[in-house]
Amino acid sequence: MKQGVYLDDDDSQREIYKGLLSDENIDFSSTVIPSSMASLISDIAEISPDIVVMDYRLDGTRHPEWHNDFKAGGVAQVLRDKFVESPESDIPLVLLSTEANIQSLFVPDKTSHDLFDIWFLKNELHEDSPIGREIVLPKLAALVDGYELIKREVSGDDPAILAPGLLALEKEEYLELQPDGLKPVLLNSDGLPERAHVVARQIFQNVVKHSGILLDRDGLRARLGLTVESFERLCQSVSFEELRYEGVFSNGWERYWKHRYEQWEANSFDVLLGSLTGEKRALLLEEKFDVQCEPAVSRWSKSSSEYFSFACHVCRQPTEQRHSVAVFEPRLLPFMERRRVCYDCVETETEMRRMHIRVSETDEATVDAIRDERLPKPTEGEE
Ligand SMILES: [Zn+2]
User: Fold this and answer.
1) How far is the CA of 374 from the centre of ligand 1 (A)?
2) Is 381 part of any domain?
3) Full residue range of the structural domain in which residue 224 is found
4) How far is CA 292 from CA 180, 227, 232, 296, in A?
5) How many CB atoms lie within 10 A of CB 327?
6) Residue 7 and residue 88 share a domain
7) Which one of 63, 65, 219, 374 is least enclosed by Cβ atoms within 10 Å?
8) For residue 299, how far is its CA from the centre of ligand 1 (angstroms)?
9) Pairing relation of β-strands 308-311 and 318-320?
10) What dihedral do alpha carbons 182, 185, 188, 194 form, nearest 10°?
């Protein structure tokens, strides 16, 4: 059983979330009271947990003997500094807070969200949430397992074998990828392995969460250009399991190798699916696998005669290049695909704002045209 610590200055909140966070993998029952930074850090050191989850506001409770003038970012900074001295105790740090507090972490001059591996909203752990504990808790367990694997691999002597070990690939298959592009994710400028939480963050942000080497389920469906129902039906006949990524964090995030998908595509068809419209792809898939296939429909043009190629970064629906804009992403590594947002989500705007998405400079004029209705949304049946 792994040990977790949950930090919250409010007694009743702490008890509630210690309970909601605990499951058969991680036990959050121990209590650390954030009465001062020094006592909190020494209590955590004593427990030596596998993961620390914290509320954003730790300074809300006033107590005459407490010196709790700090928030989660301050605690995370002190813990990360301590892990530099003892790399073996480097563990995932997770923020669990309210929407407003999480949003305040994204104010541009605050970098403290970089100190956390991931964040969740408190209400996502409640029964009435569409997300729920059964989605959140396996991700916490996957973070703990991922850190353990990373610590084991980075302590080895040969950085060259680091990547295949973490990604669970045979060396030959690993060399088919673009291993040079992956190097800065794993090694520092001296060619030595980075610290565990740096490797963890880079793999998580650049490889697992960002399409490029891996595809998520929505990305896979977009490449096939199918509706959700047809995609699920196809998955029963086609063994996409063989494309599954089994490396670090794979038990919390379902991903598929893009190069294996492309190999499957080449083995199955004489043409590239991407060169066909959604309609033609559906016919081809139906014929080949004898499964009823409905093509996806563009949210903008309402047509299936589109060349669907990726999942919109906001709504996750299959989207075509010509009705989408590029996201501003200055720090893309060579193997990462630039994220794109469909015209429909540009028009709606709310989710883009909430996700703090900036559009690439080259597409700013298109965004203005959509929002000023100079580029109106086609009505049904119109191109
Ligand atoms: Zn969208």
Assistant:
1) 19
2) no
3) 214-371
4) 41, 11, 11, 13
5) 19
6) yes
7) 65
8) 8
9) antiparallel
10) -130
Is residue 377, in this structure, part of any structural domain at all?
no
- Residue 146 exposed, middle or buried by CB count within 10 Å (0-12, 13-18, 19+): buried
Same domain for 134 and 20: yes
Q: What is the dihedral of CA 82, 88, 90, 92, to 10 degrees?
A: -160
Domain count, the chain: 3
Q: What is the distance in A from the centroid of ligand 1 to the CA of 377?
A: 13
Same structural domain for residues 362 and 268? yes
| pLDDT higher than threshold 60 for residue 212 | yes
* pLDDT for res 106: 63
352 Cα: distance to centroid of ligand 1 (angstroms): 9
∠ Cα 208 209 214 (to 5°)? 45
Rounded-to-integer distance, Cα 364 and Cα 207, Å: 27
pLDDT in tens, 317-332: 999 999 999 999 998 9
* 88-117 confidence digits (pLDDT tens): 899 999 999 888 887 777 665 456 667 899
> Does residue 66 sit in the same domain as residue 25?
yes
